[in-house]
Amino acid sequence: MIEGGGGAERKSFHQSFSASLPKAVQPSPVGDWQVLLKRLNVPVFEIERIAQRAEICGVSFQTELLASGAVSERELFRALADDLGLAYLDRPDPSDLVMREWQGFAALANRGGVRMALTLDRDGRSIVLIAPDRLNIPALRSFVRRYPRAARRLRVVPPSHLRETVRKRFRPELMRAATDGLFSSHPKQSSRFVVNAWQGAALGALLVTLAFFSWTRPAAALLSVHGVLSVAFLACVVLRIAIGLSREPEKKPNFTDMDQAEAPVYSVLIALYKEADVIPDLLSALGRLVWPRSKLEIKLVCESDDRETLEAIRSHELRPYIEVIEVPAGGPRTKPKALSYALPMTSGEFVALYDAEDRPQSFQLVEAWQAFRDGDEKLACVQAPLTISNSGESWISSMFALEYAALFRVVLPWLARRRLMLPLGGTSNHFRRSALNAVGGWDPYNVTEDADLGLRLCRFGYRTSMIANATYEDAPTQARVWVPQRTRWFKGWAQTWLVHMRDPGAAVRELGLPSFVIMQVLFAGMVLSALAYSIFWATVLGLGVYVALDGEFRPGHFWLLMLDGANVVLGHAAFLYIGWLSLNRTERAGFWKKLLWTPAYWCLMSLAAWRCLWQLYWNPHHWEKTPHKPYRGPYIGTGASSSKSLQPEAAAMRVGRSRKEPGRHVGPGWQAVPPFARSVRLRATRQTRKPGPEPMMSWSSAPIASRSLPS
């Protein structure tokens, strides 16, 4: 709402109220909460556990209390309002909010949420909404006694509800920032336009030249096309062989001791669209992540018109650190647009990105943070490897698993060790927030925002590294699902290449020559080689039919046949070679089947590449959604060290509880413990010692713990 004639009066009241509050708010210790929590039937032992966890994590008691789930946010703030004699307002009207755009964006990016806001009642009088994250109960009680008239104009609001009000109030501004942010700050690196003027002119001239020589000198045109495609094809072959010959052993997780109080706030983003079936699996997977819940924020980003997914999420009673963000309908309807919409509403120093079907190993956040801590400010991103867990379901998923193994176990680590341009995977990316903001975030118009962002980070002087804790996911098992997904990938790689080749000279200077060459091979080379594969086979088969019917085998036919045949054989050999190197002994069983399926799999790739050209012209920003099914297999590993000191934790930290089945929690049955938690022991266990190994505290669990106990 825009301030009108009463703006001066409202501003004066707001300023006088703010001035009357303590300048440095010291959060209430646990003693100030005892009476209120007993009224809410929170057991004394639970209060003590929460207080000790708050001390260990270096957060306020209130923050740890809400993260623990011992009491709901709504119950707590309603009881607080009753205790102080203040009015309680559950959900303010966004249209009545008096706040400027910059204030709204700053409030949404604040870890503590929106602490205070000004709104209007039905008579136009100003009302102050308070949702303090560092609540000092005695100070607030003293204020109410000293200023009773001002207290009547206060409303206590649950922090998440006030945050939702601000989000709805500035929805158009957030949407504009998401769709136009990168184009406004870095227009030359946005995919909003597929080609620029000189690229369009060059492409037109190339097509006209090709058509002219195809009519006047068809043999020369055919050989020229095959020569260009062969260069792209063989470049991919050479890169695969070079990587395979110089590969190094896989990196193993290596945790070090550290204090939980040092842990920063970590933001986790998950973009969801038509994912109602996998929501329980997703919440369960998130529940296994090891990180202090009082320093974790999870954003489930959904399209506002995706009612099924939203209803599936709302059927669970989520913890306060999980926020559902509804993205307004509007183009481009892509995953990066949704992520760009949600990013201003995160406060974490580090940002992790997952997909709906992901099952990350428990200690992935810990390993990523340690990589950032040990690296310099130029380390902008760490990529976790992706592992396919349903490779045995079909021949397509088997070949997909082979591709992923080669990419995440061999190719990307090879690039990372040499600090070359690294195209990110679409998920399990962990970003340094400052670097993500510096490069403009995700491109909402690019349908492979991951590859584009990895390249843009490199152009800005940042680098990416790999970690060992993997994320498990399922591959498509049918061609009708696989082909649209691969079409989107090829289209996005083509978009990325066109964007970063708008000024080739600048790209060489900013990337360096080695990364520039890698960009040509991984983006242009991969798309061209997929297109070329069907051309090579068509040429071989066409020449065979021609010779069989005509009976004449000319020298030109021989060289063309040899060229195309060599391309196909070498392409298959390099693909299988690097795939073989990426598999362990168990995974290599039945490898001969992959050899037999490779030609068919590459034919599907070629089909997807030709579809990509069609879409790049007619519908460049269309996002072909990949459907996901609920996971039915066992949860695989924690990603922790194999140290004997790792013991299961009895109490798991859940992320939510099913509303339909109140007794069913969404989360794991236990948490393994990393080596750095050895100094944190269960006090209750020590007091009543039993035979056997002593359990230790997991970052995501909530036992009574003390840092003073010996390890």
UniProtKB/TrEMBL annotation:
<feature type="transmembrane region" description="Helical">
    <location>
        <begin position="221"/>
        <end position="243"/>
    </location>
</feature>
<feature type="region of interest" description="Disordered">
    <location>
        <begin position="684"/>
        <end position="711"/>
    </location>
</feature>
<feature type="transmembrane region" description="Helical">
    <location>
        <begin position="521"/>
        <end position="546"/>
    </location>
</feature>
<feature type="transmembrane region" description="Helical">
    <location>
        <begin position="558"/>
        <end position="583"/>
    </location>
</feature>
<dbReference type="Pfam" id="PF13641">
    <property type="entry name" value="Glyco_tranf_2_3"/>
</dbReference>
<dbReference type="GO" id="GO:0016757">
    <property type="term" value="F:glycosyltransferase activity"/>
</dbReference>
<dbReference type="GO" id="GO:0016020">
    <property type="term" value="C:membrane"/>
</dbReference>
<feature type="transmembrane region" description="Helical">
    <location>
        <begin position="595"/>
        <end position="618"/>
    </location>
</feature>
<keyword id="KW-0328">Glycosyltransferase</keyword>
<dbReference type="InterPro" id="IPR050321">
    <property type="entry name" value="Glycosyltr_2/OpgH_subfam"/>
</dbReference>
<keyword id="KW-1133">Transmembrane helix</keyword>
<dbReference type="InterPro" id="IPR029044">
    <property type="entry name" value="Nucleotide-diphossugar_trans"/>
</dbReference>
<keyword id="KW-0808">Transferase</keyword>
<feature type="compositionally biased region" description="Polar residues">
    <location>
        <begin position="698"/>
        <end position="711"/>
    </location>
</feature>
<keyword id="KW-0472">Membrane</keyword>
<feature type="transmembrane region" description="Helical">
    <location>
        <begin position="193"/>
        <end position="215"/>
    </location>
</feature>
<keyword id="KW-0812">Transmembrane</keyword>
<protein>
    <submittedName>
        <fullName>Glycosyl transferase family protein</fullName>
    </submittedName>
</protein>
